[in-house]
Design goal:
nine-stranded mixed beta sheet; 9 strands; alpha/beta; 22% strand; 7 helices; 209 residues
């Protein structure tokens, strides 16, 4: 399943169709013990933990999470964006939902927690997707061999960081995706590049199922 780093091209309008047809606010509240709670969508056989950027919240992932649920996944957006909250969400999906494999998807500052958990407990992470996350070669040097997708808008400052991390990350199953425009983080999904980014993420997640 290995291969060289590759740039994912913008593809179909699948993401647009899923978002346009989906009602807002359809997730269910879940409690994650002392580490707060979150919102869950779907009941599929593959888990995805969504970590929001500063200034956002779990509900900001609604359209993205609904698209994942439509593709047979269970998405869980955390209220908090700490490493403890991410671990609690992974444990919930594994212990309460019975899911063996869980991916992490983080935007902006939420990438700090996603990277920390991925470095410290690589056995818990099936794959990692970072959107507009600041970092360099040293940020990913200690990550495991699991697949990684580094995404950003081609016109934002984080594009260079995404390219640097994609080129330096361990393993053979790493990829870079640059959406058109200059939006950053979760705002990309509401920009002209949003459909292409969502489609790239869905295809990337589906490759491991």
């Amino acid at each position: 399943m290995g291969g060289p780093m590759r740039a994912l091209a913008a593809a179909s309008t699948l993401g647009l169709l899923l978002v346009a047809c989906a009602p807002a606010g359809s997730g269910s509240r879940v409690e994650l013990g002392t580490d707060g709670g979150g919102i869950a969508w779907g009941d599929g056989d593959y888990g995805v933990v969504l970590i929001h950027d500063s200034g956002a919240d779990a509900a900001a992932w609604d359209a993205v999470a609904l698209a994942m649920a439509e593709q047979g996944m269970t998405a869980l957006a955390t209220d908090g964006s700490s490493a403890a909250a991410v671990r609690a969400a992974i444990n919930y999906l594994r212990d309460e939902r019975g899911l063996e494999r869980v991916a992490l998807v983080a935007a902006g500052s939420g990438g700090v927690a996603a990277l920390a958990v991925s470095r410290e407990s690589p056995e818990l992470v099936d794959q990692l997707i970072l959107i507009s996350v600041a970092g360099d070669a040293s940020s990913v040097a200690e990550l495991g061999e699991f697949p990684k997708l580094f995404a950003a808008s081609e016109g934002e400052a984080a594009a260079g960081d995404a390219e640097a991390m994609a080129g330096a990350a361990p393993g053979l199953w790493n990829a870079l995706f640059l959406a058109p425009g200059s939006a950053s983080g979760q705002a990309i999904f509401d920009s002209d590049g949003g459909d292409a980014l969502l489609d790239a993420i869905l295809r990337r997640l589906d490759e491991r199922r």
